[in-house]
Design brief:
The chain is mainly alpha-helical and 307 residues long. The chain is 64% helix and 0% strand. The protein starts with a helix and ends in an 18-residue tail after the last helix.
Amino acid sequence: MTRGSRSSASEAFSTYLAEIGRDRLLTVEEELTLARAALNGDTRAAHRLVTANLRFVVKVAYEYRAYGIAVPDLVQEGNIGLMKAVQKFDPERGVRFISYAVWWIRAYIQNHVLNSFSLVKLGTTQAQRKLFFSLARTKRELDRMSAEHGADSDGEDVEKIAKKLNVKASAVEEMTRRLSGRDFSLDAPLGDEDGVAHLDFLADDGPSQETKTATAQQRALLEDRIATALSELDPRERFIVEQRVMSDEPLSLKDLGEHFGFSRERARQLEIRAKEKLGSKLEELAMQLEWPRGGPPPELEHDRAAA
């Protein structure tokens, strides 16, 4: 988001706060009347019940701003929870609407926080959700109590936190690690260095640059030597090597014999002679590259060199 768009969003949210601040709060009698009408399908009554309590959603949303999520987004989710509360509210139970609605508002905001906080799923159980939203508050409370009694506190008394929240100490430690390890883009710049990102420091399991360069040089040398060796064979021998050794779909000995007009056995003999002749011309290169003896180099099985 650019600076201009952030400024525009901030101005829009300020305008929204000013507008909802002008909506008059409801009396108990007005609230009951509107709630009963909304329950019977009166959309205007439901709308008035919502607009009269929008400022309370903002108040609740600000309680969750420490999770690094934009307050307008939290307010938007809370407003959805408020509208859901209007649909579910029973005015005959003798409870104020906002006392009931706060549970829906918090539920929608908390669900948005959990879904937006990390790509790694958090709060998959009710106990984890409670710990996620209670951990920071409990730490602050314990730190404040320690300060009031003049005791030193490093803010990491896991056993005290676990006891207060009625969870295992291991669960507190795990959630603390997950909360401290926020997501970040691998393409994000690292510090003030130009062109350097987190991605540049990831280990590469593939071949090193030196290995890639050596392989490329070896392949270039191989192709050049093979092309030279092939050029020194006679046309029939060169055809046999190309079609029987270097082809992705090699000819059979029968097809090779029919091509030249002789028997399958004669084709086999000529193939052996052509391979031996080619091998003798590449012997020096084979020793240099440490190819295994007893057959052509592996590259000949896959690469087609230019004749």
